[in-house]
Every structure is written in C-alpha cells, then in structure tokens.
Amino acid sequence: MFIQFLKVLFVAVFLISCTASREEFLTGSDKELYDLINKEINKKKKYVVLNHTDFDLLEDMITTLQIRFPYSPYTREAYLLSADVAFKRKRYNLAIKEYTEFLNNQVNHPKTDYATFKLLKSQSLLIAAKDKNVDPAKEILRIYDSLSAVYKSTEYMDETERIYIKAKRFLLKRAIYVANFYIKKDEYESALGRLNNTKILIPNLVNNSSEAQYLIVLSKIKSSKDADKNTLVNNYKRKFPNSKFIENLEELL
Asked: Which of 23, 45, 160, 195 has its CA 20 to 30 A from that of 178?
C-alpha cells in the first residue's frame, strides 16, 4: 500500500512540474525558453517514474521558440535542438537529417563543430544496424575527409578518430564477408569487384589485410585463364609469409 502511495505521489509531482514548465515556456523570454529546452534535453534519468525526458514537451517548446521568437539567435538552433532530441530518442536517421539541416543553414554558427560531431556519432550508431548497410560508414569517411583544421583541433577529434577507424574496419569486414559469399557461389568477378571498390575507399586496410588479399588473388586466378598464378601467389607469400591462406593458394598452382 505504501509503495502504491509513493508511485501516485511521484506521478502527481511529475504532472505538476510539467504544468509549471508549460506555463513558463509560454510566458518566458527566448533565453529562458532556450535554457528550459536544454535542461529537458540533458535531463538524466534517476528514478523509475520521475526524471524522464518529456519529449512531447520538448517538441512543444522548440515549436514555441520558433513561433514566439522567429528572429532570436536562439531560434537559429532549432534544427540543432530537434536533432539532439532525435538523438536522445535513438532516432538516428532523423537526427542525421536535422543535424544536416542545421549545418546547411547555419554555416557560420559557433556550434557547427558540435553538430558535425553528433552527425558523425549518429552515423556511427547506425553501423550496428542489423541490415548491414555500409552507407553510414561511407558517409563517415566522406565527412572525415572534409573536416576543417579548426575541427581537428577541437575536443571532438579523439572520438572522431575512433568513429573513423570503426567505419573503415566495418567496410573491410563487410567486403570480406560479401566476397566470400560470392566465392561460395563461384561468382569470382563479383567478389573481385566488391573488394576493388572497397579498396578505393580504404586502400591501406585492404592492401594490408591477408584475408582480403587472399580473396583478391583467388578471384583473379579463378576468373581469368590468363592469370599469372605463380606471380600472384609468390607475391602474396612474400607479403604475408605467415598467412593461413598460403596453403589454399598453393593448391591452385
């Protein structure tokens, strides 16, 4: 009975706090409303009932900021605020769209570096998706190659490097997986094409991967009667003398 009472009390306090917040953002200044939005976005979950981020309230506050203060400097961050809300809700595709809109519309805004980092982070979190889509990893490489010197000196760069490395490793892993899939179906030209396309994106990783290079040599030998088997295999053995794939290649000679 006491536990049930506490739950009811928590809910009552939560509803009262929401009502107070709604009144405040309808009457406060642009700065007060902006601060309320950020406070709600950054709210940490402490209890089962209390301290949940109210996403409906956030959307209302962001819309109110845009309507009440269309020319406020804080309203310039509307897309950024919406992106942060989407990110917190783990709606990463929507977050990517909103961060991109902010970067496209606010080129000189002081928070562009932050938005770029969160864009990279959102793409990185999509890499773990079950559909094994390589587009987020490719986009990370594209964004990384366009980073400014200013961004590279920011606090975000260390984690950006980790995101970049994760993306490159994912591309290599997927290329090897797909190439093996084609090889099992005796589609060696398709396997070679996938590996060569990946090599354009991440040349160092592909060139230094014993498995990727094994699959390339295997595919070249199997897809062309004119392939110089001895040269291909010997070059592979010199580069990867301890590779577990050498025996497989020697069987092709």
From this structure: 160
Helix count and strand count (H, E) for the chain:
14, 0
- The rounded distance, in Å, linking the Cα atoms of 231 and 215 is 15
Query: Whole-prediction pTM value?
Result: 0.82
Q: Which of 106, 103, 141, 134 is nearest to 120 (CA)?
A: 141
Closest-CA residue to 223 (of 197, 185, 250): 185
Per residue in 44-70, pLDDT tens? 654 444 446 777 888 888 888 888 888
Residue 181: CB atoms within 10 Å: 13
Q: What span, in angstroms and rounded, lies between the C-alpha atoms of 154 and 202?
A: 25
CA dist 183 to 125, 170, 222, Å?
30, 20, 10
Specify the 3-state DSSP secondary structure of 90. coil
Please, where in the chain does CATH 1.25.40.10 lie?
Answer: 127-253
The fold of 127-253 is 1.25.40
